[in-house]
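Fold these two proteins, one after the other.
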Amino acid sequence: MKPAPASTARRTSAPLYAAGFVTAFGAHSIATGLGAQSGNIGLTILNLGILLAVYDVSEVFLKPVFGGLSDRIGAKPVIVGGLVGFAALSLIGLWAANPLILGLARLGQGAAASAFSPASSAMVARLAAGKNAGTYFGRYGSWKSLGYVIGPLLGAGLILAGGFALLFGVLSGLAAVTAVWVLVAVPHLEPLPRQRYTVLDLARQVTERRFLVPTVVLAASTGALGAAIGFLPALATRHGLDPIAGTAAVSVLAVASLLIQPRAGKLRDLRRISDTQGMTAGLLLTASGVAILALIPGPATLFIAAAAIGTGVGMATPLGFAHLADTTPPERIGRTMGSAELGRELGDAGGPLLVGGIATLTSLPFGLGALAVLIAAASIPRLTGNDRIKTDDGGAHH
């Protein structure tokens, strides 16, 4: 597979970065709004938890499915269809006067994001085509992080100005505009011929070191991210800080991740760091940040820990995706990205659950300490070899 020319790849990848922004902005703006407005719309803690979870539940089940579909029919139709679906299903939120309607809107948005998120990753991988994958995934991840940063703030402002109806309306319009942009600017790359895979073939592929190691790295990084975003505000309040300080600490984390991802990807493409070195360093830095929260939480260390976690996640994430892009046969890149994103979703749910569960039985420092140990343990497995793309028959693409 020949790589797209650099100028073409830059021009056509921008709408894909926008698609990544849409899913992050949609997920985090509404999640924050639900938490802030739960009392006003009659949500119990249980109902709030369910509404926060339905978006991720959709993604856990559907991302591998839509990733495989993008291999069969091409990534562009799946991206456009997912964005159009996101725009249409967000309109349900215009009538979000009760928890049931909110839940239906969230479920629909999660299902639609399950289509365009892994397909966008697959398209980024095909545009990079074994060349500068770190740079492309660094930028893609950076735009997702931007959605995490401004999503809660912008979402809160829109809810204040016009309620959930205005927020869902803006999300619908944003997804529709991005769908048109993808339709116009992104080329349709024909699906590549694929060999027939058996269940045993699939089992072997998902247990290969070249898939398993980066997917574990992505899951561990996202687990730390989810736990930190959830518990940093609580820790800030516990140590006498204003609630705004907790939000500021989360913003420090997200900005650190936003800034480091393109740089980490670029260093990887320049061969200044290897995938193993970068992912290991990223996880160990992330684990150290979580350990700081567990051992010496305080007004200053909260921000130090947030910066460490954000930097670590920003180092590991683009290298994990770039390694998957470079070591997966292109005809099944969509399924691989969908499965890797499934790993991220499990980490996103598992990190906060682990910390919360252990904290309930013991205390929050023990929960955070356990998470730090698991993240550090995830850095132990190593990749084998330096081949960029290996096919199932032992050949290689360059």
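Now the second one:
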Amino acid sequence: MSDVLVLETGQTPPTGTQTPPREPKWTDTFAYIANPDQFCRHNLKQYGPIFKTSVFGGTTVFVGSARAVQMALNGDLRYTEIGLPQTTMTMFGEYSLFQRPDLHRQRKSALRVGLAGQAVQGYIPKINHVIVQRLQAWPTQGEIALFPAVEQICFDVLVPLLLGVELSDAYFQGLPIMSKTELKQVYKTFFDGFYGLLPWRSPLTTFGRGLQARAALIEFMQAVIHRRKSEANLDPTSDFLSMMLVSQEADPEGVFSNTLIENQCLLQLWASHYEISGLVSSWMYQLGHHPEHFADLRAEQAPIKDTASSTITGEQLKMVPFLEATIQETLRTLPPSSTANRRLTQSVVLDSILYEKGWTLIAEPRIAHILPEHFSHPDSYQPHRFMEDISPRDKYAYIPFGGGVHACLGAQLAMVVAKIFASHLLQNFEWHVQSPAPFVQFPLKKIKDNYPIWISQFNTL
């Protein structure tokens, strides 16, 4: 971004430069964690899309305007570094893509091979098979707890694709984690560890239990990797782990060390599982509140539904632009999380606003996605806005998967799984919601486990 002015140490900012409005408050972290939506909307209304807070300590500037978001997302190695809380960094581990910005591009390019393009296209038959099979267990008519029902299916889809782990009882024999149920529970404890902001490693704390779960999962992945390496003729297109193992064998001194592989299996499942589960359940919830869109969605599904196979192909996924629009509008209205925490290593000036060295920047879709200059009637669920020509809209105005060099590595996989899941739901089920859903707000926004919806099956899977 050429118009970002990076100040040298001691350099005076240009005349007329001002710092962002609002004075940080000691209560900011608590207010943000309790309800990020409310926190962002309240301050946006009072101060505009850029304002100072003390969220997570120090001075933290929330940015929602497209130009400020672009500045925040693209400053690595020039004027920013990672700015996540230390507990979060510890949970991610030293081999996450958040570490070593000097190696970020190299690692991300190597990992993308297993999470985008032809790799994702090759995963489509497996995704179809698991979703169709697991949907058969849903009641033909009755209530389901929305998020747990969706999350269970997403877990069963993603664990084989990312970890290369079969979910049969026989597969777990001889492994440190001895069943799918145990794996799921340990993984939930690991995820919950991200809620712990106090760096106490005691098993009496959420953070401490999360670290213990992380260690158990790494030990599990080490055993899985040892087992997979003994297999003859690993197919690098079968799953994410196989891609990394074949790449490691081809270049033992390259990117894919054992430690990197173990951590990436762990972290890609963390990112993909909870974000996709949250997305699909939020999409069902939004459509339940806006049933006027069902007719158009089902009409779009008709050519796919009329084929003999229950497998939805990659080509057929291109034939459902309105479905994709409803998913994108769901991501706009219910974004799962903020997308960047960057600490300024140099003071910078953009659009006469000074961002001082040492401050943290948070790029917030909860602000960006409701700015009326980019989204008319931002509080309305209007999927057709994504069917229109969006070229006038700045690409940094819509950031559910981040942007720039730190755009989400699994975004393409997330959209493919969500579209296949949604297509099978539209072809086989009706559903409606009766009341507003309560949401878990932090660290990822998702519908609470006890929220029910009513479903009825009108087609045999």
